[in-house]
Write a structure and sequence with these properties.
The protein is α/β, with parallel strands linked by helices and 469 residues long. It is 45% helix and 13% strand. The strands form two sheets. Strands 3-2-1-4-5-6-7 form a seven-stranded parallel beta sheet. A six-stranded parallel beta sheet has the order 10-9-8-11-12-13, sandwiched between helices. Helix 5 (121-129) links the parallel strand 4 and strand 5. It binds uridine-5'-diphosphate-xylopyranose. Its EC number is 2.4.1.-.
Length: 469
């Protein structure tokens, strides 16, 4: 067959999902010369195209086209914080028929569809149209495995987890491979909901639909999560672990304009100059990702904790990060003054470059999966403050399984923040430092020729070619 395979990718409409899927699209375009159709929601389509260096992008990836479908929400709808769940239901109802119409209108029939695990309506569409579908879960293997046990957790009475309840530290017993690791407080945030909650039920349905896909793609690497990947192979005969995807792409296309092309928010590069002037490993980087929001009180506790630790910090504060922010007048003068002396604040940082910078010695993070993986790859120890979705699981893996950071879970009072910052930046907990170096090396090995993730991307390309021929 002369014409190249055509792959359609459908991410869930949020930064942390679009980024790894767009990187995968670029890798398939580059490695397999595939025709790619990347389908965003209209809201994100415009944001992304505004920030992409389009001529450079088209030169590098001439066979990658962007298309869009509605997400079913009004343009003014806040899509961060708790409102992000509205997208679950609106995409399932409104985007599903739109996605079907888009697929049948394409001039080349797709060889396969790669759909985000929480856009599993794509599995229905693919089944109806007789197109093979592969599911991409943008979470860790560990968290993906947990999501397949939600029903069992309900049956065993291990959820709902009641916040503030003393049994938050009870071990979870019904998930194979995680019996001695997970406590109730480490489960995904949806486990705090009642069993019949539409959001919890939505996740159960998504997990079940995912199993109808022919294979699973994960942005992780084999050496980090071997036991969990083996468990997932009991559900999916083929699991492609190809992470860290950002570093795999950067190693293949060095210094390309595609490097920061998957951001929906404009990056403020000025912080790199500020980092250049700091001592090696002296700066704590702080970012809470693209979705979670803080109350004004939590924001101040973190800020005091940072200032009281006496360590220089670079903080990415999104304009919509503080939910009840009522202007700079409500920020104590002492904090503003101290931050001028010892801090650098931007609204959105070039995070990959920041984590790779020699001045960075630690990362205070919300434990989003992309941030976690980027930090592991860069060998930066973490302080985790998880809030929603998979973040509670990630922070437990970071602190207990991989020992590449400390878990601040469920509290952010200024004295605890200060203590953990000192532990990571000053006392340099030995076990954490050694494990951070080891896992960074494993991550680097995985993306190079002969490495597991490098090999899995090649296998994915080959497998798609065989579907096509
Ligand atoms: C969301 C969920 O919160 C997360 O738990 C899930 O794993 C993926 O979807 P998000 O909150 O955005 O993602 O966090 P994360 O997964 O860490 O992704 C954020 C991305 O934005 C990272 O790739 C990071 O490099 C980038 N980023 C973040 C920047 O480029 N600049 C910043 O200032 C902050």
């Amino acid at each position: 067959m002369d014409i190249a395979p055509h792959v359609v990718l459908l991410p869930f409409p949020a930064q942390g999902h679009i980024k790894p899927m767009l990187i995968l699209a670029q890798l398939l375009c580059h490695g397999g010369s595939f025709n790619i159709t990347f389908v965003n929601t209209e809201y994100n389509h415009h944001r992304l195209l505004k920030l992409i260096d389009q001529p450079a992008f088209s030169r590098l990836f001439p066979t990658l086209q962007f298309m869009s479908i509605p997400d079913g929400l009004s343009p003014e709808h806040p899509r961060a914080g708790p409102s992000v769940v509205d997208l679950f239901f609106s995409t399932s109802s409104v985007s599903k028929p739109e996605f079907r119409n888009l697929i049948v209108s394409l001039s080349q029939e797709p060889t396969c569809i790669i759909a985000d695990g929480i856009m599993s309506f794509a599995v229905d569409v693919a089944d109806e149209l007789g197109i093979p579908v592969i599911t991409f879960r943008t979470y860790s293997a560990t968290c993906t495995w947990i999501y397949f046990h939600l029903q069992k957790l309900i049956q065993n009475g291990e959820i709902p987890v009641l916040q503030g309840n003393e049994d938050m530290d009870t071990q979870i017993s019904c998930i194979p491979g995680l019996e001695n690791v997970l406590r109730r407080r480490d489960l995904p945030s949806i486990c705090k909901l009642e069993a019949d909650s539409p959001i919890l039920q939505f996740y159960i349905t998504q997990a079940s639909k995912m199993t109808r896909a022919s294979a699973l793609i994960l942005n992780t690497f084999q050496e980090l999560e071997t036991p969990m990947i083996t468990h997932l192979q009991s559900i999916f005969p083929t699991v492609y672990t190809s992470g860290p995807l950002h570093s795999l792409l950067n190693s293949i296309i060095v210094d390309s304009p595609s490097k920061n092309s998957s951001s929906l928010i404009e990056m403020d590069e000025s912080c790199i100059k500020w980092l250049d002037a700091q001592h090696p490993k002296s700066v704590l980087y702080v970012s809470f990702g693209s979705v979670i929001v803080l109350s004004h009180d939590q924001f101040l506790e973190f800020w005091y904790g940072l200032v009281n630790s006496g360590k220089p910090f670079l903080w990415a504060i999104r304009p919509d990060l503080i939910v009840d922010y009522n202007g700079p007048n409500n920020i104590p003068e002492e904090l503003k003054w101290a931050s001028k002396e010892m801090g650098c604040i931007v609204s959105w940082a070039p995070q990959e470059d920041v984590l790779a910078h020699q001045s960075i010695g630690g990362f205070l993070t919300h434990s989003g999966w992309n941030s976690t993986l980027e930090s592991i790859y860069s060998g930066v120890p973490m302080i985790c403050w998880p809030m929603i979705a998979d973040q509670q699981v990630n922070s437990r893996c970071v602190s207990e399984m991989w020992k590449v950071g400390l878990d601040l879970k469920d509290t952010c009072d200024r004295s605890t923040v200060e203590k953990l910052v000192r532990d990571v930046m000053e006392n340099k907990v030995e076990e954490v430092m050694a494990s951070t170096v080891k896992n960074a090396r494993l991550a680097h090995d995985s993306i190079h020729e002969g490495g597991s993730s490098h090999g899995n991307i090649k296998k994915l390309v080959q497998d798609i070619i065989s579907i096509h021929s």
